[in-house]
Prior knowledge:
The protein is an alpha/beta fold. The chain has helices spanning 29-33, 47-51, 73-86, 99-114, 126-143, 172-179, 214-221; strands at residues 18-23, 39-43, 56-58, 62-63, 69-71, 93-97, 148-160, 163-168, 184-191, 194-202. α3 (73-86) packs parallel to α5 (126-143) and α4 (99-114) crosses α5 (126-143).
Amino acid sequence: MSILPENKPHKPNGTPRNFFIWGDTMSGKSFLATRFPETIVLSTDDNEKNSGTRPTIPLANVRDSRGKLTTSVIDTLDESILALKTEANSYKTVVIDVIEDVCTLIEQSICIENGVKTIGDIPFGKGWSLFNTTLQQLILDLKGLPMNIVYISREDSRTEDNVTKPVPALKQKYYNVVNGNCDLVIRTQHIGKNYIRTATDIRKQYKASEINDDHILRILQAIPGALVKEKVTTTNNKDGK
């Protein structure tokens, strides 16, 4: 059988599956993430243990009394993704909370394994090369799961041309890698008594009529900018003329 696909148009998937949620502290990031169906949280945040209600896998680098790495966050991520892919389970959404901490932990793990203080101390740029490969592989492995993927990031600020604007706390070069594999970017805000969600970046124009997951559709319908308005077809009489 040939590896070549049949030469005919195909209908693209109309349901977004990879999401990036960012916002200030206590703005509802984690709350929104756990509204997705059947979530499991890969968490770097101790608050998850105290206030979270969904099953959680803690992410951390664990060392023994001599400082030797006994549990690497890289291994934990690999084992978790492999289990989600190969073991029978009922999860439908993986939440990464928070992605900038995951990047820091990966960098820390590489430093400990190589006996250096900073990743730049590894000769010939091998440390950064290893980090970039590890991060990219993580994103691709997550994207390859038959599940929704939700990345959470805190809010930071950036000043350009004397104008300060809010941005995700994830470093821009890492954000480009993650966002390049996401379908929808959502910002959360807590203003007064109101919790506001806004789509700040979107891969394509998503239409309610093309969303094949009712749970995802309900989430998107509550986020301004996530869905485009569709034209309503009207007819003049019962014959449709």
